[in-house]
Structure formats: C-alpha cells, structure tokens
Amino acid sequence: MAKGIWVFAEQREGQVKKVSFELLSEGRKVADQLGEELCAVLVGKNVSGLTEAISAYGPDKIYVVDNDALENYTTDGYTNAVSDLVKKYEPSALLLGCTVTGRDLSAQVAQRLETGLMTDCTGMEVADGQLVFTRPIYAGKTIVKAACPEARPTMATIRPNTFAAVENAKQAEVISVESGAGDIRQVIKDIIRQVSERPELTEADIIVSGGRGMKGPENFKLLEDLADVVGAAVGASRAAVDAGWVSHSFQVGQTGKTVSPVLYIACGISGAIQHLAGMSSAKCIVAINKDEEANIFKVADYGIVGDLFEVVPILTEELKKVMA
C-alpha cells in the first residue's frame, strides 16, 4: 500500500533550495492530516551534511542517495535515482518545487512511473482524504482545484513562495540508499555561471519591479540602479514582459513567479489581480504610480503618487547617502 508524503529536497552546490523547506513545512501539515509520514529525498554527491538543515523543517525520514555520478544535475541520473527510490518505497505523493530542475525532473519521473503530474501549483490541501492542488489555467484567468485520486504516487510541482518555510525541528531518521545513477546520456563538459550580484528573484529579500509605466526597455536601467543600491532583484509585470521590454524570467504574477520578499517596490505597475497574486504576500509593499486610483495602492503599505521617472532617481540617490 502506498504511504508517505515525499518532498524532493533540491540542492545545488551544497545549499538546499528555499522552496524545499517551504514544501516540507506544508507537507508536514498534510501528512499529519492524512496520518502519513513526511519524508525528504536528497540526491547528489557528498550531500549527507545537508540532512541537519532539512531536519529543521519536520520530516520523519530523509532518504539520501549519495553518488559521485550525481554531483551535477542530469535528467537521466536524477530520474533514475528518484524513480528507483519511489518504486522501492511506494510513497503516496511526491512534491517538487516548480523550478527549472523540478519541472524537468518531475516530468521525467512521472513518465517513468506512468503516474499523473500537476504542474505550477499555487496551493495544496486535503479534501475527502486526498491531496487537492490549486493551479492557474488560461493564462491565469481561471483558478482550478484538481486531484489525481487513482495516481500513485500523486505528483505535483509547486511554485516557490507559495508556502511559508516554518522550522519544526525533529530528529529525522536518515536512511542512506545504495543506488546507482544508471545510464546517463548527458555529458557535462563545463558549467558556465551567469555572473550577477543580484539575488535570484524567488529568493530575494528586496525586489524592485516595473510595469507598463516604464514605457520602454531602456528605462529599466532606473530600476537596476535602485536595485544595486539596496541589493535587490529586479522584477516586472506581465504587461512589461508582453511588451518585450524584459524576458519572462523577470515576470512576477500568476503566470510568472510567486515571490514573498521583505520589501517589494512596484514602479509603474497598475496592480492587475494576476500580478497581485504573485506578490501580495510581501511583508511590505511600496507603490510608485502617477495614477492615484491605481489598484496597486489598495495593497500597498506605502504609496507615492508621482512620476516614477522623477521619484525613482531621487529615491536611489537618497538611499545611496543613507547606505554609504
């Protein structure tokens, strides 16, 4: 009989991704409701040292697959390792973060196991004794709740920042699993890292975002200058992305990334409901918009009614003085 709520603990270069802690925190709640164990799955090379950090978020067990061939993520290697583990222990659910790695791995594992997969989810709950997931469809215009009652394991990818990462330390049982990486068709010749001093959008404490009011791609330099002063990431609304001013990787909202920073500065963003869905959990929201009726002011903690092309440069210069 299938049992256990499993979370794939994604790690890179010795650091567990924040979304993994978020899934463990929420997974603890649903596992308790279903009367099942919460387990983490950790895959890589020399990753045993990460189990203490993972234990802080409440798993009952941590399955560790430590193999030299799994030092770097490859579709084949990780698919083989995770699929073999699932076949052996038969969990009832497997949750992954909706990251580049999570999206790739989940699709391959679901195909290998011939099970269902719900992607890009923004919510999870227990109803009638089973997991039910919330996800946007039709470019974020409609929200649906879906379940795979016959699929075992039930699989889902969940957006970063959907849940809070709340520590709930337990003495987790660490289980080392002897597993090969199997045949790996991909050969990693070199890893070229993007050089940027700005934090990743989904993990940033401060985000400066621009919308239609930016009026063009060249004006995002204003936001970049402000972001560099305060150590922020740069984001954008769907309107700015659809206009071709920035790439989709910058998009915050229902059809972009969900963020939960300490401070969110919205510049020239009207506040469409799809955008608010992706950033409304920010601890503090500052809105800059010349339209005093803009919807963004309804959720903002602080609002500045003014021309962003005047306000942002002044704000940047004043913050430079304060932080010098």
TrEMBL record:
All residue ranges annotated as the Electron transfer flavoprotein alpha/beta-subunit N-terminal domain in the record: 5-190
InterPro entries cross-referenced by the UniProt entry: DHS-like_NAD/FAD-binding_dom (IPR029035), ETF_a/b_N (IPR014730), ETF_a/FixB (IPR001308), ETF_alpha_N (IPR033947), ETF_asu_C (IPR014731), ETF_asu_C_CS (IPR018206), Rossmann-like_a/b/a_fold (IPR014729)
Cell membrane in keyword set: no
Superkingdom of origin organism: Bacteria
GO terms assigned for molecular function: electron transfer activity; flavin adenine dinucleotide binding
Transmembrane segments: none
GO biological process, one term: fatty acid beta-oxidation using acyl-CoA dehydrogenase
Cofactor (UniProt): FAD
Keywords: Electron transport, FAD, Flavoprotein, Transport
Residues that bind FAD: 212, 237-238, 251-255, 268-275, 289
A Pfam family the protein falls into: ETF
Cofactor note as given: Binds 1 FAD per dimer.
Family under the similarity heading: Belongs to the ETF alpha-subunit/FixB family.
PANTHER family: ELECTRON TRANSFER FLAVOPROTEIN ALPHA (PTHR43153), ELECTRON TRANSFER FLAVOPROTEIN SUBUNIT ALPHA, MITOCHONDRIAL (PTHR43153:SF1)
Protein name from the UniProt record: Electron transfer flavoprotein alpha subunit apoprotein
Organism: Desulfotruncus arcticus DSM 17038
Lineage: Bacteria, Bacillati, Bacillota, Clostridia, Eubacteriales
